[in-house]
Amino acid sequence: MAATLFVLFILLLCNHEADGILRFASYYGDHMVLQKSPERAVLWGYGPEGAQVTLLLIGPTNQKASPVSVTKGIWRVTIDPVEAGGPYNVTAAIENSTATLTDVLFGDVWLCGGQSNMYFNMKQIFNSSEELAIAAKYPHVRTFMASLRQSETELTDLPEVELPWAVPTEESVAPFSAVCWLFGRYMYKYLNYPIGLVESCWGGTPVEAWSSLRAVKHCGLEEPEDGPKGNSVLWNAMIHPLLNMTIKGAIWYQGEANTYYHTDTYNCSFPAMIDDWRMAFHQGSGGQTAPDFPFGFVQLSTDKKGSTEDSFPEVRWHQTADIGYVPNARMKRTFMAVALDLPDETSPYSTIHPRDKQDVAYRLTLGARAVAYYEKHVPFLGPFPKQILSGATYVNITYDQTVSVTPSKVIFEICCSGTQDPCGPKSKWVQAPIMHWGPTTVQLYAKLCPVTDVVAALRYAWRDWPCDFKACPIYSASGILPAPPFLINHYPDRENIWISY
Fold first, then answer.
1. How far apart (Å, rounded) are the C-alpha atoms in residues 22 and 97?
2. Residues 6 or more apart from 376 whose CB is under 8 A from it?
3. Hey, which bits of 157-275 come out as E strands?
4. Could you tell me the pTM of the whole model?
5. Are 443 and 437 in contact (CB under 8 A)?
């Protein structure tokens, strides 16, 4: 992870022959959004060797950048900060040629990555017709999609563009990521300035495919896979080319593929990928993208109703680096949308692909407002235990906020043990019904342990499909934010202090 990253110079090592024609790189185009101030946007492209390229910005404010030389077929300019707004024309000029981008806006650029639930498009969601009918009412939310490509080596530019930058219409938004579009649309209503959305995702892919070799090696996962599941192949082709773009942040929906592949190491591989992306984007943009840019993600929803397998709850837990919530000391400036209460039993795209992406996106926006935009007093975290006390017949949980509680006999489980070894997912667990509750407390019945055992651990919602739609037992006082799942151990030699597994 500490290896030197030569992203600033990778442009000089372009994988394809420069054709000598003045042009912008693949992901710059008409109608695009460039990152607004205080950051400085980076633009780059190709041209005749040795030519002097001058970049002109014409619009509400004008700029003329100092000329830069084309070196090994590449030119690159970092412009001065530009306030949100537009439209602008951006022109790259050499002695006998120009290349111009029109209708360019400045705002916040968000990268949307992951696997099939991020790839899940606007045509597939609930109320898609109504949602698509209003897309054109948000002309300052612009979309771009990278093509599905893989590579064994790090590429300088995208091999192909699936959907170029576009002003939203029903037709242009229909094949675009629903979570990405809805997140951008909701954020625009809050920020009231342009939002650029860059979709780069691929269904059925593990986190290792999106991680650089540095990040993969950091977690000791060096054995290769074939196809789009192979280590770093999507990082190489679909993320690395974007590093030179200045971005505000990223949102991510992935983890299903890791419920059956390297599940036990996801608590390393996912945080390591985030750390590595931050380092790489910061260096690739010449220091313009923040070194700790905000990173939001969706905690896994559901797959198989009635399943007792641990893979989905384990990945949910590992998505938080085994803390249970974010941001935390290991995963700073992150935010999470809990989605285990949004199952879709009749989804025609299989139950692993729920159609309610509106609630997912809305919960992400709450986290973004708090973490990325530092809005105070915006609730974005569901209830989490602040203290757990146990007696002979009960376990009493005090939450960190006021809770809305619905009785349940099955959502909480206790681990009964006669040893001081920590309980894990494979230990013996018994259900602990909710007995009583107050504004911030929940009391569980715990007399189900044998007399020789003690309550050694407590877990909540530790199932693939823990509840029906928006019907989990514990929510925030508003009923909007579900409590995230957890598994917390109790060590008797430390009295009533409970610590995370």
1. 7
2. none
3. 161-166, 195-201, 249-253
4. 0.94
5. yes
